[in-house]
Amino acid sequence: MTLAQPPRVGVAVIVRRGNTVLLGKRRSTSHGDGVWQFPGGHLEWGESVFDCARREVLEETGLVVAVEGQGPYTNDVFEAEGKHYVTLFVLARSDAGEPQRCEPDKCDEWRWCTWDALPEPLFLPIQHLLEQMPALRNVPSPP
Fold first, then answer.
1. Which of 84, 107, 109, 138 could form a disulfide with 24 if both were Cys (CB 3.0 to 4.6 A apart)?
2. Alpha-carbon span 108 to 73, nearest angstrom
3. Does any domain span residue 80?
């Protein structure tokens, strides 16, 4: 049996605005094509998780975010593709501006969504996040 590559660290940023979170429809030739994901990417050598979160959101959407803290993590094995990620979630807030498709070869669109109406299909790390924390789908909207 041939072993796949060692696990990589992914950073997924839960960008919140009011009662919504930002999701993008993924374009990828390696894994997860056509699924909805949070902005994010690979943690680079020597980079802090929060710096990675700010960098990835800016590179992908053009938005500047305020990091509010760390979230949970998921263990994500993409069997068919032979990829294994540990995904670190970061909580962030965006108070102004609209997301742009700064990397159109990687994302078809960005959309603000409520937790109880997330588009499908969802990227594997988000599926695992919701399995760990099913109450997220029931976060009430502010009055």
1. 107
2. 26
3. yes
Strands 40-42 and 8-17: antiparallel
pLDDT digits (tens, 9 = 90+) for 59-106: 999 999 999 999 999 999 999 888 999 999 999 999 999 999 999 999
Q: Is residue 3 part of a domain?
A: no
Buried/exposed 33-57: b ≥16 CB within 10 Å, e otherwise: eebbbbbbbebeeeeeebebbbebb
Q: Is residue 55 part of a domain?
A: yes
Query: For residue 37, what are the CA distances in angstroms to 2, 120, 124?
Result: 29, 10, 9
Rounded CA Rg of the chain = 15
CATH number at residue 80: 3.90.79.10
In a domain, 56, yes or no: yes
